[in-house]
Amino acid sequence: MIIVTRPDATEAQIERIVSRIQSWGLKAEVSRGAMRVVIGVIGPEDKIREKPLGAFPGVESVTPVLKPYKLVAYEFRGMPSKVNIGNVTVGEKELVIMAGPCSVESEDQIASIAKAISKAGAKILRGGAFKPRTSPYSFQGLGKVGLQLLAEARKLTGMPIITEVMDTKDLELVAAYADCLQIGARNMQNFSLLREVGRTNLPVMLKRGMSATIKDLLMSAEYILSEGNFQVLLCERGIRTFETMTRNTLDLNAVPVLKSETHLPIVVDPTHGVGVKQFIPTMALAAVAAGADSIMIEVHNAPELAKSDGEQSLLPEEFKDLVPRIRAVADAVGRELC
Fold this sequence. Notes:
Blueprint: E1 2-5, H1 11-23, E2 27-32, E3 37-42, H2 45-49, E4 59-63, H3 74-77, E5 83-85, E6 88-90, E7 94-100, H4 107-120, E8 124-126, H5 144-157, E9 161-164, H6 171-175, E10 180-183, H7 191-198, E11 204-207, H8 214-226, E12 232-236, H9 254-261, E13 266-268, H10 270-274, H11 280-290, E14 294-298, H12 316-332, E15 336-337
Parallel strand pairs: 7-8, 7-14, 7-15, 8-9, 9-10, 10-11, 11-12, 12-13, 13-14
Antiparallel strand pairs: 1-3, 1-4, 2-3, 5-6
């Protein structure tokens, strides 16, 4: 249920509403706009329906949220949310670029890439310390050493870092180093992991599963928010279709659909969405035009030597050439580049 207060509602009236909701054993989530305050009431629907929410002084309207995803729904906030990753905010007018290698491989590798992409315009460093791979014999990441190298790269450049957590047993370790936790496509419906990251105070980027619908993605995000963590980004990274000319099919339909369905910021990962290096820049530009709040690009200084995903990684100079083009498209659609 969504309570919208009157423009002249006082703080005392708002506090009374929240206090009474909590006394009923329900949760109250407060979102403040320029003129009104929106209060989301969370709990069993039959219990909420029996309460006289419209009787409180200062209430303008009470509206039920009919969608299965209550906290994720745009109606819950009534405005877009912003997510703070270190000193960078995603969800504002400024478009944010995330970039970096698929895997952290060595100190020289991650430091070199971090310096290059920071100079070119990236604001957040991505890199994998724990890698989910199709084959158990492929490179699985450096683990704790990889996290330490990411932290050193953060010191070097000032960029906050986003890295994947694959298992609940690794969450405490990853959270000690990361500025943002990434839930990969293969773990989108790992509900135990989603609940655990929902109990942290770190931002979470949830990637869409390879065969997941948009509703599936939103319901998975609901698990995180239901545990109290509203600092969530949704990432479109391509889905599996019958098309074989690219690694996946980048579903840019998802961007405007998600914008209409949820208040959460949207990230697009054209690298995994296409998987063919020559098409990645074009799809990055298309994602900006579609309304993405952030773009994630894989960059490697020696793709031919990369231990994972080298064939779809841009060289630092290619990334540098792409950034002004991203800025131009952002300007054309009324955005700015962070």
